Amino acid sequence: MSVIANTKLSFDEDQAMIMEVAREFCRNKSTMQAVRGLLDSASGFDSNAWRELADLGWLGIALPEQLGGSGLGVAHTVAIVEAMGRSMLSGPFVTSTLAAQLVLRAGSSAVGDRLLRDVIAGVPATVAQLESADWGSDSCACLIDDNGQLQGSKRFVADAEVAGWLVLVSRYRGAPALALIQAEQLPPAAIKTHTLVDETKRAATIDFSGLQLAPEAIISTEGLSAALRDYALLGALLSAAEATGSAAACLDSTVEYLKTRKQFGKLIGSYQALKHPCVDILNAIDASRSFLYHAATLLGDEPLSRDAEIACRMAKAQASETLLYASDRAVQFHGAMGFTYDCDAQLYIRRAQWSQQQFGDAAHHRKRLAALLLDE
User: Fold this and answer.
1) Residues in CB range of 341: below 8 A, 6 or more apart
2) Fewest C-beta atoms under 10 Å: which of 68, 96, 231, 347?
């Protein structure tokens, strides 16, 4: 099977440099004190840090040079997202990157190019896709009629309140379509915010009913189905990158506590019952990174291959369970304090609960991996 034969993993100088800069940037801009200070804010992120991030060119890393990007490809964003997850740096980077990739892969258009240039310049963008509580549903009830008017709403639209562009997944004349919408086209009452388990994240329900679209703002191409498939797989991969970074930080925090907390005159980190799970977490994090950068190695500008799909799904399944286990152990190992809101372990277990549902949990991806690997 190709999953056995294809073990390619490369990490070039550009990726290494980006990783080093990203880790330093995130470490300086997102201390745990800063993270907690943003939990109750409206946007959930530091606008100054966002501007600096845009000035570094990170939003254009995966976008073509003719639009003002770097043309390095989406693989080079993986290290950035992992660093963000490690420092719990919030902001619409992942949502903007995915929205840009969806538009780019759907096909060229004047409005699409304008969206991509805006993203590179630092204007946040997001994708509105989910419609029901069943996140595995492929149905689409958000419709564009023959006159270009929208009907329907979307739930859990990430970073909806700060997005300058919204990429709406809909149907037009019986076929899949994207509607490219600028935020000022929406009335304020159209957006209703959600309260999320991960307080570093923001999402909302948006009612698009009655919105009038210009013909050039509608993308309905033959390649759109493939673009939507790739969007979901890239979303799973970037979610895995963030989860892997968060799991590493969670382990660091737990080990630091085990090295300082004493009971019965002994450091609790000396007990094997606590040592062994930490080693298990470390091994799981290393496995997550291997899956991440193997998948990144297989990515390109063309539609994702079968091997790339397998790699993305494996990365998400591994990373989701790793963060869930690491955060659960962090809460337990901190004792009674671990169950309090003031303990940082709470931030990680909330991130784990949210992250595992993004673009499918481990069971979702393993079900599809079974078909890819065994139905031959």
Assistant:
1) none
2) 68
> How does pLDDT run across 335-350, given as a tens digit for each residue?
888 889 999 999 999 9
Q: 20 - beta bridge partners? A: none
Q: What is the DSSP string of 147-189?
A: TSBEE-EEEEEETTTT-SEEEEEEEETTEEEEEEEEGGGS-GG
Q: Strands 175-182 and 203-207, how do they pair? A: unpaired
Residue with tokens 């493939």: 226
Q: Which ranges of 259-305 does DSSP label H, i.e. alpha helix?
A: 272-298
C-alpha span between 212 and 151 (Å, rounded): 10
**In this predicted model, what pLDDT tens digit does every residue of 310-335 receive, in sequence order?**
999 999 999 999 999 999 999 999 88
The C-alpha atoms of residue 224 and residue 256 are separated, in whole angstroms, by: 48
Q: Is the Cβ–Cβ distance between 376 and 335 less than 8 Å?
A: no
Farthest-apart Cα atoms in the chain, separation? 76
Dihedral angle computed from the Cα positions of residues 94, 100, 102 and 103, in that order, rounded to the nearest 10 degrees: 160
88: three-class secondary structure by DSSP: coil
The β-bridge relationship of strands 150-151 and 191-193 is unpaired
**pLDDT, tens only, 276-291:** 999 999 999 999 999 9
> pTM of the prediction?
0.94
Q: Quick one: how far is CA 325 from the chain centroid?
A: 19
**Domain 225-374 CATH (choose: 3.40.640.10, 3.40.50.150, 1.20.140.10, 1.10.238.10):** 1.20.140.10
CB 208 within 8 A of CB 190: yes
Domain assignments of the chain as residue spans, ordered by start = 225-374
pLDDT of res. 376: 58
Distance CA 64, CA 35 (A): 33
CB 79 within 8 A of CB 15: yes
